[in-house]
Design brief:
This protein is α+β, with helices and mostly antiparallel strands. About 30% of the residues lie in helices and about 30% in strands.
């Protein structure tokens, strides 16, 4: 499992948190995901052999939230 933290500056409420976590949890290879409203970031563990970081970013962006590098 690889751990990473993504900056998602548009997270502003619990609804945002639940939407992002749901979008990422729906991907194969996700071990854990936690969106932090106060820190405006998403921490996650994922299996690189099953899902790419680009796919994770894409799921967050499809949910309506920009991911900063």
């Amino acid at each position: 499992m690889r751990h990473t933290v993504l900056s998602v500056p548009e997270i502003s409420c619990n609804h945002c948190k639940m939407t992002i976590e749901g979008a990422v949890k729906g991907l194969r290879g996700i071990g854990s995901v936690e969106a932090d409203v106060a820190g405006r970031r998403v921490s996650l563990d994922f299996d690189e052999s099953k899902v790419t970081l680009d796919e994770i970013r894409g799921a967050i962006e499809e949910a309506g939230y920009a991911v900063e590098s």
